[in-house]
From TrEMBL:
Its EC number is 2.1.1.242. It is an enzyme of class 2 (transferase). One of its GO terms (cellular component) is cytoplasm. GO terms for molecular function: rRNA (guanine-N2-)-methyltransferase activity. The lineage of its organism: Bacteria, Pseudomonadati, Pseudomonadota, Gammaproteobacteria, Alteromonadales. It holds the Pfam family SAM_MT. This is Ribosomal RNA small subunit methyltransferase J. The gene is rsmJ. PANTHER family: RIBOSOMAL RNA SMALL SUBUNIT METHYLTRANSFERASE J (PTHR36112). The keyword Cytoplasm applies. Specifically methylates the guanosine in position 1516 of 16S rRNA.
Length: 282
C-alpha cells in the first residue's frame, strides 16, 4: 500500500479476541479485465496488507474491486447494485460539509460541539467513516476503529485518496486516523498506547438488524449487511466506552430501537432518521 502512516494496526488484533467480526461473506480482491500489471501488483499488495485473497479471474459473487480510480465493494451478479466505496470528496459529503448545518447538525449537537473546536473523538464503529468525516470537518480529531478487514481496506483507500485531494489534503489526514481491530479490546487498552490520548467523546454506531428487506433498505446497505450482518455483540461496547470517554458517549440508533445494553441515556436526541442517545460523564 502507499503511504499508510495514518493507519495503526491493532496490537491486540482480531484473532486474539473473543469478539471476532461476524463476517457473513468474505469477498475476494480482484481487478477489472485487462488490468495493467501495475494495477495487479497494487491489488495483490492491498490483499496481502489486509489478509484477503486475490483472484484476478473472478466473474461472480461479492468482490473487492481494485480499479485505477479506487477500491470498491461490488456484487458482480447484480451489476445494477451500485458499488460501495469511501469517497470523502464525493458530491454528497462535499455538500454536507459545506451546507449541512455545521455544528447544528444532529450528530454535532449530540457530540456536544457547540462552543468546542478541537474535541478528540473516538469513533469505535467506523464503518465507511461518514460520521467520522462530518465530525473531522467540524474540527474534531477523530480516531476510527474498524474490525472488518474489508471495511478497513475501503477506509484506508478513502484516506489515501483524500491525501491527494486539493480540498481535503490540508486538514483531513491530520484529523482522521484508522485503527484496525476490535473496539472492545482497543478501548480497554487505549491509554496504554503512548500515541493515544483519552477521547472527550466515544461515538458508537453499531449495525442494527433491519427488519424490512427490499427497497426500504438501500442497495448499498444491502451489500454491507451481506458483508457484515448485524453487530450481535454491540451491547458490549457501552461499558468500555463509558470507562474511557472524558465527557460523553454518543450512541446512534435507528428510531424506535432499544437502548444499547438496555441502559437509559441522560439525553435522547431525535435526528431525521436516527436517534442519538447521549451518556454524560460527570
Ligand atoms: C453501521 S456501521 C457504522 C457507520 C458509520 N457510522 C458511518 O458513518 O459510515 C458499523 C461498523 O462498525 C463496525 N463494528 C461493529 N462492532 C465493532 C467492534 N466491536 N469493533 C470494531 N468495529 C466494529 C462494523 O464492522 C461496521 O463496519
Amino acid at each position: 500500500m502507499p503511504d499508510n502512516s495514518y493507519i495503526n494496526a491493532a496490537k491486540n488484533g482480531p484473532a486474539k479476541s473473543p469478539f471476532t467480526a461476524p463476517i457473513k461473506t468474505v469477498p475476494v480482491l480482484t481487478v477489472p479485465e485487462n488490468a495493467s500489471p501495475e494495477l495487479v501488483e497494487k491489488a495483490k499488495s492491498t490483499a496481502s496488507a489486509w489478509q484477503l485473497s486475490f483472484d484476478g479471474n473472478i466473474s461472480r459473487g461479492l468482490v473487492l474491486m481494485q480499479s485505477e480510480a479506487h477500491l470498491a465493494l461490488k456484487q458482480l451478479d447484480e451489476p445494477k447494485v451500485g458499488e460501495v466505496l469511501v469517497d470523502f470528496a464525493s458530491d454528497a459529503l462535499t455538500f454536507r460539509r459545506l451546507h449541512g448545518g455545521g455544528k447544528k447538525e444532529a450528530v454535532a449537537k449530540a457530540v456536544g460541539l457547540k462552543g468546542q473546536s478541537d474535541w478528540r473523538v473516538l469513533d469505535a464503529t467506523a464503518g465507511l467513516g461518514r460520521d467520522a468525516f462530518v465530525l473531522a470537518s467540524l474540527g474534531c480529531n477523530v480516531d476510527m476503529i474498524e474490525r472488518s478487514p474489508v471495511v478497513a481496506a475501503l477506509l484506508a483507500d478513502g484516506l489515501e485518496r483524500a491525501q491527494h485531494s486539493a480540498e481535503l489534503s490540508a486538514w483531513l489526514p491530520e484529523r482522521m486516523r484508522l485503527h484496525h481491530g476490535i473496539a472492545i479490546d482497543l478501548m480497554a487498552n487505549w491509554c496504554n498506547e503512548p500515541a493515544n490520548l483519552a477521547p472527550d467523546v466515544v461515538y458508537l454506531d453499531p449495525m442494527f438488524p433491519h427488519r424490512k428487506k427490499s427497497a426500504a433498505v438501500k442497495k448499498e446497505m444491502r451489500l454491507f449487511q451481506q458483508l457484515l450482518g448485524p453487530d450481535e455483540d454491540a451491547d458490549g461496547l457501552l461499558a468500555p466506552a463509558l470507562a474511557l470517554a472524558k465527557k460523553r458517549v454518543v450512541v446512534k440508533r435507528p428510531a424506535g430501537a432499544p437502548f444499547l445494553a438496555q441502559q437509559k441515556p441522560h439525553i435522547e436526541m431525535q435526528g431525521k432518521a436516527n436517534r442519538f442517545d447521549v451518556y454524560l460523564i460527570n
